Structures are given as structure tokens and as C-alpha cells.
Amino acid sequence: MQKETISISEAAHLLGCNKQAIRERIRKKIWTFGEVIPKEKTGNEIDSFVIYRRKLYKHLGIEEVQSDETQTT
After folding, report:
1. Which of 2, 17, 19, 30 could cross-link 25 (Cys pair, CB 3.0–4.6 Å)?
2. What does the alpha-carbon distance between residue 5 and residue 19 come to, in Å, rounded to a whole number?
3. Nearest one of 28, 23, 11, 20 to 49, comparing CA atoms
């Protein structure tokens, strides 16, 4: 079973751009397959980003393949 979110690194590989470009576009709401979580909410020193696998795949036109375990007959 695949995770619902993916890392910035994996998204950068799929999109063919660098990680900072993804962060900037999500922050500016140019891309809607992810969201920024402000550092004030997380208590971290930097903002966090969440990228949703299904939304990214839809953005890229990739159909998600179900594994044998999740397919219904």
C-alpha cells in the first residue's frame, strides 16, 4: 500500500524541477497538490510541506495503478 503523501525529493524527480521551485509554487498557490504548514504550527524552525500523491499524479496526468491487494473483483 502506498503512502498518501510523498517527499519533496520524490516530487522534484517526477516534476523534473528542483525542490525549492516546488516549495515556492506551493507557497504561492500556483500548484495545489501540496500545502505549506507554517513553522509556528509545527514548532519547527522552518515551514513544512505536504505533497499529496494522488493530487500530484492527477496534476501530471499519471493514472495510479492499484496493487493486486487493493483491486476488487
Report:
1. 30
2. 15
3. 23
pTM score over 0.85: no
Per-residue pLDDT tens over the stretch 33-63: 999 999 999 999 999 999 999 999 999 999 8
Range list of H helices, 1-73 = 8-15, 19-27, 39-42, 53-60
Report the distance separating Cα 13 and Cα 48, nearest Å: 19
Q: Return the residue matching grid coordinates 483491486.
A: 71
Q: What is the CA radius of gyration of the chain?
A: 14
pLDDT digits (tens, 9 = 90+) for 5-34: 999 999 999 999 999 999 999 999 999 999
CA distance 11 to 8: 5
CA dihedral 5, 66, 57, 36 (to 10 degrees): -10
